[in-house]
Design a protein that fits this description.
This protein is mainly alpha-helical and 713 residues long. Helices cover 56% and strands 6% of the residues. The chain has helices at residues 17-53, 61-73, 84-89, 98-114, 125-137, 139-145, 148-156, 171-181, 221-241, 246-266, 270-275, 285-291, 297-304, 321-337, 339-354, 360-376, 387-398, 400-411, 414-435, 443-455, 469-475, 485-504, 549-565, 569-572, 582-597, 613-636, 650-661, 678-687, 690-695, and strands spanning 56-57, 90-91, 94-95, 189-194, 202-207, 281-284, 315-318, 457-461, 523-525, 530-534, 641-642. A hairpin with a 2-residue loop joins strand 2 (90-91) and strand 3 (94-95). The longest helix has 37 residues, at 17-53. The N and C termini lie far apart (84 Å).
Amino acid sequence: MGPPWSQESSPEEGLPTEWSREWSVTRRVLLVVSLFSLLLGSSVLWVYIFRNCGPRPCETPMCLDLLARYQASGNTSEAPCTDFFSFSCEKAKRISDSFQALAEENKKRLKRQLEDPGSWHPGSGEEKAFQFYNSCMDTDAIEAEGAGPLKQVIEELGGWHISGNRTSFDFNQTLKLLMSQYGHFPFFKAYLGPHPVSPHTPVIKIDQPEFDVPLKKVQEQKIYAQIFREYLTYLNRLGTLLGGDPIKVQPHASLSISITSQLFQFLSPLEQQEAQDMHFQMVTINQLQEMAPAIDWLSCLQATFTPMSLSPSQLLMVQDLDYLRNMSQLVEEMLLKHRDFLQSHMIFGLVGTLSPALDSKFQEARRELRQKLRELTERPPLPAHPRWMKCVEEAGTFFEPTLVALFVREAFGPGIQSAAMELFTEIKDALVAHLKRLPWISQKTRREAQNRITQLQVQMGAPEWALKPELAGQEYSNIQLGPNFLQSFLSCVRSLQARKVWSFLQPLPYHRWQVSPWGVTASYSIPDHEVVFPAGLLQPPFFHPDYPRAVNFGAAGSIMARELLHIFYQLLLPGDCLDCDTRALQEALLCLERHYAAFPLPSGTSFSGSSTLLENAADVGALAIAFQAYSRSLLEYRGETKLPNWDLSPHQLFFRSYAQVLCREPSTEHSQVTHSPPRLRVHGPLSNTPAFARHFRCPRDALMNPSSRCQLW
């Protein structure tokens, strides 16, 4: 007999058969319910864990504002795998321009500061900046003055045959005054720049002039005639506004256009300059005097670049000596035959230069001319800007050292600067790691490249010297505001020129910042081996410490990576990297050129794959490095966030932010030669990145998921 528990009967024993079957069914139902409850509880638990361990929505005011910006600029109905540019940048057939919008936001910030009635020390830089801005905005006073202040300026130059009160015309004396006192250069440009051999030594550069009239040597005769008529109408209008008889103004205006046309014909075409590799030539003032004797070079340059001490043996950097010879010959001929007309040509040009400080009649005449000329040359019309924007720009130009401190204090505090520097360090580290994996670079070149990255200097926000409060008062001691806005404007022009000369003569790098701290352009200085990121660039929507890291790495991080890659342009040029695997490098570059050429472009846009190759390579490399840095940051840091109520993962948000930086209309200006059209700058690098296709689940052979890719960076 076994143990007692082995003989115990089951609950079903002794029960009727029907009850036994019912109990069996009940037990099965209870088992299913228990299993279902267990699975449901596990699912809820996993959902809870996933939601708490995954990216949390960022609901700070900065993130909500960014979400609104992104939703307003892109068209999410577009398929990202087919047209990511429209997905990110095009809303209701209107393309947003991120850099232009940011530049306007920075100007609005300056506007608020300039309109803040702070209590400033009498005579301080802040007080003068605010007074200048208010004077610029006082259009009633400017209109009441009319052409009076401009007529006074013309009298200071010796008068004008057209408007009366004319004295004898001394060509070189007038030219010297125009250059030194009024910032107008009618026949050539003269400015200070770094010496080609000793970059920290200033040298005077003589360059080609800028023309109001968009002439071309191959221009159709019909268009040229229309341009001539429009410009003639404009000059006639200026003459009559200054009190001239329209009948007397007409021949002066016609001959002024003839002078402009002849000067333009003397220029070497840009294509010829590039083909012949025409650079600045070093000549002394004495040598230039012999080649172009109509200009009193020493006198004019000494007056313009005081307090520099110039002598006949002073070296100058001159571009296009042939132009200067021909220009000098034309001036000599005009002085012999048409002195009055030559003076009129110089006066007409001065009025155009000073038009921002004149009343609405002069400004409207110039605006209409520019719009008409853009129509004739099939360029898009210039956007209309409010008066305050022009006044902010002028105040920013003339009072930059004072306004820098105000702008940086509000827009780029220590916390933002620290976060931006941390981002730059991560981008730089990713580039160093990236160099180790490049198949076409040699060990020796890789070490040299890593050393250059290590030695690189970085400036963020604003130059240190500009933030010193004691500097502001010294900068503007020579500015006299009043009695009218034109005189205030001219006083600021002279002060600015003196400040530029003074800065170039200083041992410290006062002149190395190429943009204002509220500007939106990064730069790399080759002689200083220094990269500069102004405070105005590291702002929403490109950067903010409260943003998800995906946004900062995709937008500001890609901008930083692109500037870093400018250091290595020479590696990609034929014959410049002797230790590189030339064959592999050239194959990668050729692959990249074909990759870009395969993309369709909207009608009316075009690009040259060869001339944009270096910038295309920088775009592709910048995206790869920024994405690598972001991926590494996800391993090292927890707590990534995403934008709320928006169906984009952090990785998708990274790519969306990268594209946001490049949102803009295609440019028709000459600068477009070095960059591909914006749509191509988005699609080219993203389609060359496998991670993009993976995170957006793009089908194979879709536009943004090609079957083959290029491995350059």
